[in-house]
Amino acid sequence: QVELVESGGGLVQAGDSLRLSCVASGRTFRNYVKGWFRQAPGKEREFVSAITWDGESIEYAEAVKGRFTISSDNAKNTVYLQMNSLKPEDTAVYYCAARNIITITTVDSGYQYWGQGTQVTVSS
Questions:
Q1: 3 state DSSP class of 31
Q2: What pLDDT is recorded for position 1?
Q3: What is residue 77's DSSP assignment?
Q4: Which of 13, 28, 50, 70, by CA, is between 20 and 30 Å from 96?
């Protein structure tokens, strides 16, 4: 059974940083794309960032470009999201997702596996 477990969320002030982690287990994730989505209260879930297995292709949502960095450690089956210069509008539940196709999509329905989410709250 595939399991994705996020950690690293919390309550921070505007301008602070957080690093989210997502550990995947239950199968081999070779050639999987791993990504991050977020959902703020009253809003639909939105794409944040994704990375291919080999790390050669990365995408970011416009809202986080230049502030967030995605990376992965395949030996640990872990994907990270370094979030710098956080803003109150970054407040959301952040979800890790995995896709068993080698190309990135920003559409959440394209991801087969999801974590339970971790709350990120940024105060002004």
A1: coil
A2: 80
A3: T
A4: 13
Apex 64 CA angle, 96 and 56, nearest 5: 65
DSSP summary character for residue 101: S
Residue 100's contacts (CB-CB under 8 Å, 6 or more residues apart) are: 31, 32, 112
For residue 122, the SS3 value is strand
Please say whether the beta carbons of 114 and 3 come within 8 A. Answer: no
What is the per-residue pLDDT across 3-41, written as a single tens digit (0 to 9) for each? 999 999 999 999 999 999 999 998 878 889 999 999 999
When the pLDDT of each residue in the chain is averaged and rounded to a whole number, the result is 96
Let me know: does 81 contact 73? Beta carbons within 8 Å. Answer: no
Query: What CA dihedral angle connects 50, 20, 62 and 48, to 10 degrees?
Result: 50
Q: CB atoms < 10 A from the CB of 117, how many?
A: 18
Could you tell me which residues are beta bridge partners of residue 58?
A: 51
| Tokens found for residue 44 | 């639909």
- Cβ neighbors of 102 (< 8 A, separation 6 or more) are 31, 33, 52, 53
